[in-house]
Amino acid sequence: MRRVCFTLQVKPDRLEEYRRRHAHVWPDMLRALRDAGWNDYTLFLRGDGLLVGTLLTEDLAAAQAAMDATEVSARWEAEMADFFINGRHLVVLDEVFNLEHQLGASQ
């Protein structure tokens, strides 16, 4: 399982509404994410709109494609499109440190 971290930028004037919408995500969207392989998926939002997401997945491209194939994701994306600066293009970050990996390698 691969740990993925990504960023997006939420428009500063939409932060409170973004928080409200994520407090009660549609049940069919939650199931679709789970079924598509988005495990342990978490979002963190900074006050200036920086959004950081993390998830565990076997294959990020496959998990994204599985979500893209769902009707609920198309509805969700259409409703959320205006919240983001530069669209919903995920900027995936490179992992540069992992405590468990280094501890395991040193034993």
Give the helices and strands, then pairings:
Layout: E1 2-9, H1 15-23, H2 27-35, E2 39-45, E3 50-57, H3 60-68, H4 71-80, E4 91-92, H5 99-105
Antiparallel strand pairs: 1-3, 1-4, 2-3
Task: Write out key terms for the chains shown.
107 residues, single chain, Rham/fucose_mutarotase, 5 helices, Alpha-Beta Plaits
Task: Describe, in plain words, how this protein is organized in 3D.
The protein is an alpha+beta fold. It has a single domain (2-105), classed as Alpha-Beta Plaits (2-Layer Sandwich), CATH 3.30.70. Helices cover 41% and strands 23% of the residues. The protein is built from five helices and four strands, in the order βααββααβα. It has a four-stranded antiparallel β-sheet with strand order 2-3-1-4, with no helix packed on it. β2 and β3 (50-57) form a beta hairpin. The radius of gyration is 15 Å and the shape is globular. Pfam families: rhaM.
| Rg calc | 15 Å
Strand content: 15-25%
Strands side by side in the biggest sheet: 2-3-1-4
- Could you spell the SSE succession in H and E letters? EHHEEHHEH
Helix content: 40-55%
- CATH architectural arrangement: 2-Layer Sandwich
Uncertain residue segments = none
Largest sheet: 4 strands, antiparallel
Average of per-residue pLDDT values: 95
Structural class computed from helices and strand pairing: alpha+beta
Q: For the terminal residues, how far apart are their CA atoms?
A: 22 Å
Q: Quickly count the domains.
A: 1
Counted beta strands? 4
